[in-house]
Amino acid sequence: MTQHQGALDGLCGPYAIVNAFELLDYRRLDRVFRTACSAIARSRWPEVLWKGTTLRDLKQMITACRKELSNTNYIDVQYPFYQSPAATNNVYWGEFDEQFSHDRTVCCIIGIKKPFDHWIVAGRDGGRVQFWDADPHQPEFRKNRKSLFAGERHRWPNQWLLDRDGLIVFRKLN
Predict the structure, then answer these.
(1) Where do the structural domains in the chain lie, given as residue ranges?
(2) To the nearest whole number, what is the mean pLDDT of the chain?
(3) pTM for this one?
(4) In the 3-class helix/strand/coil scheme, how is the chain assigned residue by residue?
(5) Which of 24, 163, 165, 167 has its CA 20 to 30 A from that of 149?
(6) Which fold is adopted by the domain 12-172?
């Protein structure tokens, strides 16, 4: 079986940023990837390749992309739970819905804890969540919200566990 992005490296964070910028209609995606990877602290290399990126890494990468890349002034980024994680699953989804009630919200990056540590781009699709991923075998898919839980424990064995502070929201300003 051939390998795909994420099978051997922990660079889902930069790929999620690239996918978010693509959904925001930014066209220089190669520059987004290079800028994002360059923004990761040197002390984190090469460990970041096998341990993955943190929320702090993502914040640094996104800040660098918005600062160093041209024509990104129409992009707004919010980190609703950066200082204080959502207290409950309901608080997480309430904030998710609130963010997507704004018509300028395009997508978000969410953190998955189980079944695997992963950063992925998501959006709201009615009662379901739309995902965009760097996996060439399944780049786009939807999941029922009940199959996602922001917390420490599964309610059901097949639920994905989401990181309660890992919500990064992307909006177009114009």
Answers:
(1) 12-172
(2) 92
(3) 0.93
(4) CCCCCCCCCCCHHHHHHHHHHHHCCCCCHHHHHHHHHHHCCHHHCCHHHHHCCCHHHHHHHHHHHHHHCCCCCCEEEECCCCCCCCCCHHHHHHHHHHHHCCCCEEEEEEEEEECCCEEEEEEEECCEEEEECCCCCCCEEEEEHHHEEECCCCCCCCCEEEEEEEEEEEEECC
(5) 24
(6) Cathepsin B; Chain A (3.90.70)
